[in-house]
Design brief:
Layout (H helix, E strand, L loop, with lengths): L3 H11 L9 E3 L10 E14 L5 E15 L5 H11 L11 E14 L4 E12 L1
């Protein structure tokens, strides 16, 4: 059985994102990685989904998927491919029952000094 984060990575690599393909890393990419590439962070937060009597019926886990590109070579179609890969993804084979997987927010951040464009996708997964 796979973890939720490894299932997310599998969905992204299976999408064969333009110029990214398998350059998908947990937390930090190796220093010599050419842009564009993707990093992801798990367990930004976890919170319970409670029933009316306070019993935990599920957990809400927040993750982040980050697309890094050179600003001068920014391709907005790439973030759409990443969005399509993870928003509503069927995370079969994970070690939990997943009820929902959705992107709740996308932010575009630019570092003019380094010439980097960063799209940060916040991903919410509700699971047992």
């Amino acid at each position: 059985m796979a973890s939720i984060t490894s299932a997310i990575r599998t969905k992204i690599t299976a999408a064969n994102v333009t110029n990214v393909t398998t350059k998908v890393y947990r937390d930090v990419a190796p220093d010599d990685t050419a842009m564009p590439f993707i990093t992801f962070m798990s367990d930004l937060s976890r919170s319970p989904e409670l029933e009316g009597d306070g019993i935990v019926m599920a957990r809400r886990q927040m993750l982040r998927v980050d697309l890094w590109q050179k600003l001068k070579d920014e391709n907005v179609a790439i973030v759409e491919q990443v969005l399509a890969a993870v928003d509503g993804a069927d995370l079969t084979g994970v070690d939990k029952t997943v009820f929902n997987c959705r992107v709740t927010d996308i932010q575009r951040l630019v570092d003019l000094e380094d010439g980097v464009c960063h799209h940060a996708l916040t991903l919410e997964v509700v699971h047992t």
